[in-house]
Amino acid sequence: IQWGDLPDPKVGEGQLLIRTIAVAANPVDTVIRSGKFHGAPSLKMPYVLGIDLVGEVVHVGKNVKNFFAGMLVWSNGFGGSVGSQGSFAELVVRDADYC
Asked: What is the pLDDT of residue 7?
């Protein structure tokens, strides 16, 4: 595991930008980290671990309703499958439908 800086993620029309407050290591995270995840070749690099999170909404995408900046949310990221990575980062983008 490497620690470092990445550009802030960009928010799409149906997404939320979330500042992470708390995370949990999901069993999926442990399988990916162990190198035993069979879908590993399809992972976008750099891959940021983390699926589960609680955080504060920083920005709301154009077509998002029922969410607002400052709102606390929970997400497990499974809506986007392994593509919804990164809850171990400071800022995370998630589809609003999965928050």
From this structure: 92
- Strand, coil or helix: 81: helix
Q: Is residue 28's pLDDT more than 90?
A: no
Q: Model confidence over 40-62: pLDDT tens digits?
A: 656 777 778 888 899 999 999 99
Best CA proximity match to 29, nearest among 8, 7, 65, 1: 1
CA atoms of 56 and 17, how far apart (whole Å) = 8
Query: Which pairs count as long-range contacts for 72-76, CB under 8 Å and 24+ apart, including other chains?
Result: 72/21, 73/16, 73/18, 73/99, 74/99, 75/18, 75/99, 76/26, 76/51, 76/52
Ramachandran angles phi, psi of 78, nearest 5°: -70, -15
Tokens at residue 32, please?
């990916």
Sign of CA dihedral 73, 90, 82, 16: positive
